[in-house]
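Lab manual, section 2.4: Encoding a predicted structure.

Procedure: take the sequence of the chain (929 residues), apply the prediction step described in section 2.3, and record the output as structure tokens. A sample record is shown.
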Amino acid sequence: MERLITNLDTNLGPVIRDQLDDNFKKLQTGVDGQSDALNKQIKDMLGDVPLQNQNEVTQARIDANGKQYQTIKTRMDIDQATAETALVEGRDTSTEVKSARVGGNGTVYPTLKQRIDNQEVTMAKNINDRLSEISTVPETFKDLATLKSAYPNGKNGLFVTVDNGHKYIWQNNQWQDIGIYQSVGIAKGAVNYDNLDNQAKNLGSTLFDIRQSALNKGYYQYLPFVFEFGSLDSSNGNERDDTQQMVRSGFVRGDGSTWNFFDNEPNLYDYRLLSYNLDGTFNQMEFDWKSSDGSSLLSDASLMYRLTLTTKDQSNAMLVEANQAVVVASDNDKAPYNPMDLWGSFDYMINIGAGKQPIIVVEPNKDITVTMPDNDLYYYDNIQTGFTLQSKSSVRGQTFTIKSSQILYWDLQTNTISVAGIDKSRPKHNVLLANNIWGQITNGYFAKFVKDWGLFGHMINVAGNQQPAFENVGVNALTINVTMPVSNLFYYDNTQTGFALQSPAKYQGSVFTLDNNQLLVWDLDANTIKVQNVGERRPNHNVLLANNIYGKITNGHFAQYYQMQNHDGYTNAKGHHVTATSQHKKLTSFSLGNTQSMCFIGDNLLTVRGTPIDHSTYNHMILYDMNFNKISDFTHNLGHFNTVDYNETYDTLITGNASDDLEKPAIYLVKDFSKLSDGSVIQYDGNNVIKINLFNDQSQAFNSNVGICFGETEYIAYVSFANPNTVKNVGLMGTIGFAKILLGIGDNDLSQVTDGWGTFISDQNGYNGTAKVIQRFYGENLGANQDMTYFDGHLWGTFSRYDTEFYKIALHSGGKFTLEDSYMLPNYNETTGAFNQLESEGAAIWKGNYYLLTYKGAINAVPINGKQLGNGEVGTKVAFDFPTSQTPHVTITPTSATTDLYVDAIDKTGFTVKSVSNKVGSFNWYCNL
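Recorded output:
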């Protein structure tokens, strides 16, 4: 049995309670062990005598705890073993045991157990006696002096003084303060800013400044890299706590998007980034010490990352300073606009419904006068919880003059509205109301009353795609011809009750020419549409339709359509702007001629050149392997070949035959395509060609943009179509929608059903020349369809006339399509910087990762999933198609019997794979760009 605690704490409290509890447990354990051993010996000695036939023997088999043993002998053997063990231990500790039998008062006990039993009884009595003297209800006194006066020699119990709320006990012959008895709750609103200590003020200010910094950079927030003192070993990722000059962050998991690093203190700190696997094991150092803005990383969602900072001058780091010094923003959190422009989202708090809005006038000298609303401005800050502000009544109706390069702003700290220069510093908490850039308000809360002064966008027949068209002409293409919609403009002024206006019919289809620095304005007073110079005073009631700033429309109601058609700042369904990408790889070194479209036939690529729509001449279809060795060369006279696609199930090629000439749109299906031999001629009216005329009444399409590709199955196809009312000289408006069609197969004649097309051909095992429209999808006005394909639940297509843009298009069940992703290759000469009018062709998905299209006379591959991939052989260096700015993490998958593969050497240009057993083999690989 374990030794008992004998030196007990004489002060009643938690210590003696713990000591007594420990002694009780030891005693119980010792007694149970001895009893169990004795019972076993007894049971073993008595053997298997039935219990119901025994008296004393039966009782002897049961120990004090009620535990039964089969024999008395078993019980006695256990007791004997316990005794012998104790005897052996006793021989070694006999002196200690004998000494322990003597009590503190000199009493000698026959056995140690008797002393412990006696001591427990005595202690229990003392504890009960002492507890009976203690009251659980404290006595209350005014203060400590009053308590001492009442009980100068102390008293058992708990006592509380009112003046400070503390509790006291009598201990060591004096009154001891043992802390607050009960604290008073903090009432809501009882703590204000002045009550906070400096640390709390600094923390709140820091967090607010960090969030404001992210918004100013165009991100909703920064990634949660929060620093503590310490460093990270760049060789193994281990933590080290040996320095005050460095700080390190916690783990932040990658999100698969680009991370942008901003060093706000480049003269104070350098930063380093390390990556780890999700199990916490070290992966690699992503980049070494850096400073200044501009670093970026395509994060890997299968990795975690940590930052470490070091001071440049080896001085001690400051945590508050470090947490603001280096910040990281993910493109996932990038806003389609600068969120600080809408920092105070309070527009619904201005009484717009009652017409209480500012009056804004642009003077001939480019000054802007702003007359404040006749109602207060109300501000609610959704960043600082509960912060609200109402502008002073003294600014109601007040007029401010904003000269060029000045701003009008609301100082939220002093609650004043003032004019200042653009280059002047503003208070930390402010709202920009308006600016003046050469006579135009381009930013600020009041800008919406200029840009959207007449909110009539929904009143233009967008559903029928009656939109304006634009054409850049003249020297350096700085002049813009604006062709009005072939429909009236409808205006309803929601600031003047009931005021509505319809533009005259004479403007339908009219062409207005805007030179540089000219405007297209709708004068609501005279109901005329006219061109005027930027510096001219506009009518009091007008709507700006378009401006021309160096060959681009940057403002006015028509700007949204210009952006759609010219993709200058186009936003896709995710709110991301179309951006030019330099990540494209030229696959062919030879000229493709006038290749119109392409598709994959198995693992090989078919490129097609078009012919005249009257089928009078022939041109080539060429089948290449992906090393671009020619496999087959066919000739055909099928027509323009706007698009092409292939279905393996029915071994059929499909094409949308369309051109810039008016022709009834049609699709052609070429049967048994894989059976054609090299040199075969495909005749448009041959036995293996099926023609299906589209849009029987010619009311649903303008032929210049008809294209087709197979869809989810061999029965489904998608047809692109254009605006039927558009004439050629409008500027080729381009694709406005897609029709999902069901292709007739076998004896399923779809020509006679609603929205049915074609002429039924009997005795066909495959396609029978008929089709039916299942659903139409409308959306943004795209460019001319140069080719399209269906992949991964989306349409992918090259839609352009003079640039190199392609889209990933989502089709929604409600009959709408949106651009889920948009890509544009540089449409300029990389050497001279001169603008090129390029028309890219083709749309094919290679390896599920690369979009193929023609670009500058060659086939180019563009990565669409943020990755590059391929295959390789063990021992042979794999060169990256797209060399990276930093060493990437490569994932390899064996494709042969040799599976013990590892990446042996890797840099920014490529890598080599080896086998542990030095065998040959092959593998697939991928890495993030």
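Check your result against the sample. The chain is about 15% helix and 35% strand.
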